[in-house]
Amino acid sequence: MGTRKPNQRSSIYYSEADGRWHGWVVMGIRDDGSLDRRHRSGKTEAEVTKKVSDLELQRGEGKAGKPGKGLTVAAWFSTWLTTIAPRTVSQGTIDSTYEPKIRLWIVPRLGKHQLDRLEPEHLDAFYAWLTEQGLKPNTILQIHRIISRALKVAWKRGKVRRNVASLVEAPIGEEVDIEPLSQEEARRILTAAMGQRNGARWSVALAMGIRQSEALGLRWKYVNLDSGTIEVGWQLKWARYRHGCGDPVACTAGRHRVLCPRSCDKHRHRPECEEGCTKRGHSCPVVKRPCPDRCIAHARECPQRTGGGWQFTRRKGVKPGRGQAKLVLTLPGPLTTQLREQRRLQNAERLAAGPSWEDWDLVFCTPGGGPINTHDDWEDWRALLGEAQVRAARVHDARHTAATLLLEQGTDIRVVQQILGHSQLS
What phi, psi does 388 have (nearest 5°)? Predict the structure, then answer.
């Protein structure tokens, strides 16, 4: 019998040259026909044996991955964010939620880890660090869900053996207290809105329970006043701008929010300042949410910016093959009358504006016909609450109020579910 080891047998040995143990594993064949041999090293034989066993297990499961330098967390999350997530998540959610959390928190802290070597302990330490940074529990929970979704795709595609996020207890989020308006409060709001421009906007909110973006995106072609119905299938969203230049970092260098250096001579106390002086301009100002290194935000200021502006998108929860794309709701009689008056007044504004009128076909619009900004809509709501002498409430609370009023009137909960467009009864 010969002493030569069989082909593709893994090898482990100690090297006196560097005082470390080394292991080699044949994972397969490269594209050019040569052997794909992977190297692992460590201080002890047991450590290297464990690493070699893990590689052999990946080879047996067909999850060896491509030869070369391992995929990092930063590289995978960049790929997932730009090429995978947009197929299942709206661009608005990516721009407002996914991208900032990946750029500001996940990549700076976890980005240098090899994707297939990320351990549950790394996430435990990461979430503890986020808490130390002052992030709220719901924000940390949101970051955990983003990590879990990205790693789930990586697991399905064989890039990792497991989704380590599923092995970590999800951070506990804070429950948000929902306090709908009472019937009396809703009645006072509707009374105060009578006679106001776009006053029917709040009747729609309290009677139909549609979301703010759905109400502001409601178009006349989906309103049938003869049959007394509206079709809710779209929402109006503001899309963020994107850089069209070759160097986003340098493009908006003057817009980045940065902390003053320790040797700052721009903001300093003067000789005549008393101890504990807090006068503005005598000390470095506090910069909230400073920009990270090589910040690529502020695309609005880019001379070659692309995208951006108002866009009609499918209502929340509607995706290809999922959700109810069209929801036809019956209008109460008084609301139908209000909307007829709304259209009459809007036609008068259209005639007065002449060629300057922006024809968006919106039920609720600016005096020039354009979309109403969500912030302006919120300001109108806050002013209305003050006039009606109603406690402070969110615009979205009108939606909860609509559901509560329907249930108090004996409407079946499944009908309420359909009206609100919720995918689950809970």
Answer: -85, -5
Q: CA dihedral in degrees (130, 134, 137, 140; nearest 10)?
A: -30
Q: Identify which of 397, 353, 411, 83 has the alpha carbon closest to the alpha carbon of residue 209.
A: 397
Q: What is the CA radius of gyration of the chain?
A: 29
The two three-digit tokens of residue 194, written as one number: 């009578």
Would you place residue 215 in the very low, low, confident or very high pLDDT band (cuts 50, 70, 90)?
Answer: very high
Assessment of whether the complete model's pTM goes beyond 0.70: no
Say if residue 145 is exposed, middle or buried (CB neighbours under 10 Å; 0-12, 13-18, 19+). Answer: middle
Q: Is 68 left (phi over 0), alpha (psi -120 to 50) or beta?
A: left
- What size, in residues, is the chain? 426
In single-letter form, the type of residue at position 3 comes to T
- C-alpha angle 307/361/345, rounded to 5°? 135
97/72 Cα distance (integer angstroms): 22
Residue 19 structure tokens? 């005082």
Other CB atoms within 10 Å distance of the CB of residue 6:
5
Helices 200-208, 183-193: inter-axial angle, 10-degree rounding: 160
pLDDT given at position 36 = 79
| Beta bridge partner(s), residue 314 | 234
HSE, CB side, 13 Å, CA atoms: give it for residue 335: 20
- Say whether 94 sits in a helix, a strand or coil: helix
As a whole number of angstroms, the distance between CA 146 and CA 129 comes to 17
The phi and psi torsions of 73 (rounded to 5 degrees) equal -60, -40
* Amino acid identity, position 351: L
Q: What whole-number distance in Å separates Cα of residue 399 and Cα of residue 62?
A: 50
Task: Give me the DSSP letters along 224-247.
Answer: ETTTTEEEE-EEEEEEEEE--SS-
Half-sphere exposure of 251 (CA within 13 A, CB side): 19
Instruction: Kindly report the backbone phi and psi dihedral angles of residue 151, in degrees, each rounded to the nearest multiple of 5, phi listed first.
Output: -70, -30
The partner residues of 7 in beta bridges, in order of sequence, read none
203 and 193 Cβ atoms separated by less than 8 Å: yes
- The tokens of 86 are what? 């947009």
Distance CA 191, CA 183 (A): 12
Alpha-carbon distance of 163 to 119, in angstroms, equals: 9
pLDDT digits (tens, 9 = 90+) for 331-358: 888 899 999 999 999 999 999 999 999 9
